[in-house]
């Protein structure tokens, strides 16, 4: 796959990525390399990564616990302390090898340690490849509230090696697919239609779709790096999706929802709301619900859950001046930002999801 060059860094693919990384390390003057992994990627991904690396620089490995519940300041403190104890200086390089939790948290740690050191992302999950590791967003959760603390900062490069997808459980693959479906709905009807019937996809098709998904996000981010306008469209499905994800994370009596599963629910809700507010086609709304539910099934959301989920909307990062702003669709590939939705319509959308 052809490398994708952004304004600030380049995304390299598969074996070519390691050639570029090794050349970069050879010509750089880094004092020491730190590889940040979680306990899953340490076992399943790091051996492959290390086998591709050629460097005479000193290497240290820092491991964190896997999972969204560990994407917090306490984990950051542990990594900052480990860096200090291992004599990291301002000329070190942090390489984040993992899914969205590792790349988000690792980017934030690098951006704040000694007021900022360089980092590289090596996403190992589908979600991180097409979304989390791209676009310069770094950060952590505040309790159950998603991504409340963070900064914009870009890596030196990104290496997308789709061989890592062979290590993923099916549920994690499904989670990442939600962001690809989102890219189709907000940007390109043809891309969406290619994802409608997954049974027909080959591994080569998946590589091509990942490449195209990254280009879609890259093009949007370059036009609006700090999310003042167009980049907000990437939050389609995330307003209610994040609220539902946070709510389920905070409840011991609820199953843990992966990010993509929550966004999938959020997309069904946002598409229904679009039929009520922006004239989106009811026929296409029904089709989108059918496609998404065929992939993700249904999550039980009771009427008692409605109020606490709606309450969590006030923490959404798109909110301005006390208004909760949604991304909706006028048509597939034609999003509309900064749409205000009343609670009555949100409840109607939740009931539609349950039907």
Automatic annotation (TrEMBL):
SUPFAM superfamilies per UniProt: Dehydroquinate synthase-like (SSF56796)
Claim: NAD is one of the keywords in the record: yes
Molecular-function annotations in GO: 3-dehydroquinate synthase activity; metal ion binding; nucleotide binding
Keywords: Cobalt, Lyase, Metal-binding, NAD, Nucleotide-binding, Zinc
Co-factor(s): NAD(+); Co(2+); Zn(2+)
A GO biological-process term: aromatic amino acid family biosynthetic process
Chain's role: Catalyzes the conversion of 3-deoxy-D-arabino-heptulosonate 7-phosphate (DAHP) to dehydroquinate (DHQ).
EC number: 4.2.3.4
Annotated 3-dehydroquinate synthase N-terminal domain residues: 62-174
Protein name (database record): 3-dehydroquinate synthase
Domain 3-dehydroquinate synthase C-terminal: 176-319
Species this protein is from: Bizionia paragorgiae
Recorded GO CC terms: cytoplasm
């Amino acid at each position: 796959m052809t490398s994708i060059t952004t304004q600030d860094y380049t995304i390299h693919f598969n074996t070519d990525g390691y050639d570029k990384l090794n050349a970069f390390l050879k010509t750089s003057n880094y004092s020491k390399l730190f590889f940040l992994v979680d306990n899953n990627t340490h076992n399943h991904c790091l051996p492959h990564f290390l086998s591709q690396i050629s460097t005479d620089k000193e290497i240290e490995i820092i491991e964190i616990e896997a999972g969204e519940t560990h994407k917090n300041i306490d984990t950051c403190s542990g990594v900052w302390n480990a860096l200090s104890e291992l004599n990291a200086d301002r000329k070190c390089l942090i390489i984040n090898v993992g899914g969205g939790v590792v790349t988000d948290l690792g980017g934030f740690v690098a951006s704040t340690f000694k007021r900022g050191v360089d980092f590289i992302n090596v996403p190992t999950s589908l979600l991180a490849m097409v979304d989390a590791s791209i676009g310069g967003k770094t950060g952590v959760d505040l309790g159950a509230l998603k991504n409340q603390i963070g900064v914009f900062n870009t890596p030196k490069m990104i290496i997308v090696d789709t061989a890592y997808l062979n290590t993923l459980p099916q549920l994690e693959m499904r989670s990442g697919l939600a962001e690809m479906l989102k890219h189709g709905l907000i940007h390109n009807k043809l891309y969406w239609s290619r994802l409608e019937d997954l049974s027909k996809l080959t591994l080569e098709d998946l590589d091509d779709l990942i490449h195209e998904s990254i280009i879609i996000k890259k093009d949007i981010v370059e036009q609006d790096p700090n999310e003042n306008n167009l980049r907000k469209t990437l939050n389609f499905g995330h307003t209610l999706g994040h609220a539902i994800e946070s709510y389920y994370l905070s409840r011991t009596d609820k199953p843990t929802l992966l990010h993509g599963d929550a966004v999938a629910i959020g997309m069904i809700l946002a598409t229904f709301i679009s039929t009520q507010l922006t004239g989106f086609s009811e026929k296409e709304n029904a089709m989108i619900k059918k496609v998404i539910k065929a992939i993700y099934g249904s999550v039980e959301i009771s009427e008692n859950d409605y109020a606490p989920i709606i309450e969590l909307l006030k923490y959404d990062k798109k909110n301005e001046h006390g208004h909760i702003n949604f991304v909706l669709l006028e048509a597939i590939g034609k999003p509309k930002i900064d749409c205000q939705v009343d609670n009555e319509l949100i409840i109607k959308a939740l009931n539609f999801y349950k039907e």
